[in-house]
Amino acid sequence: MRKKNNSKTTKQAVAPVETKKEEVKTPVVSEPKTDVKNEVEKAVEKTTEKVEKAVEKTTEKVAEKAAEVKADVKETVKKTTAKAAKAAKAAKKEPVKPEIIVQYQNSEVDTAAIEERVKAQFVAEGHKAGFIRKLNIYIKPEEYSAYYVINDKFSGRVDLF
Known about the structure:
Layout: H1 34-92, E1 101-104, E2 107-110, H2 111-124, E3 135-140, E4 145-150, E5 154-159
Antiparallel strand pairs: 1-2, 3-4, 4-5
């Protein structure tokens, strides 16, 4: 068993410690120091210069690329135009002119040769070959002759064989 403590001494409680509260005063900033202000301005100027140089370089690169693209487009247009011109020339070619040969009693003559004889005779008569605009040739093998009419005005006869 325990004995009762009848002592009349009481423990004193720990006295609260008083702490000093310091007042923290925040300084009022009215204007930044001129050194800092100047440094900021210089940094802004340098950054602006760098940006301007980068813009200039980019602009130059874009201009060069545009010039290259323009040259490529011109080259492509030239090639396409040349191909189109060739295709147009091919389309404008005269149709195939057949070789016509007249045969009669073991003799034969090409109609192109008859045409040349007609033109030669027309020029021999004193006319110019460039004057011929229309030429009609009538072949009569039984007479061994070819008759012609030039520009519906001049007519004549040539031998076939």
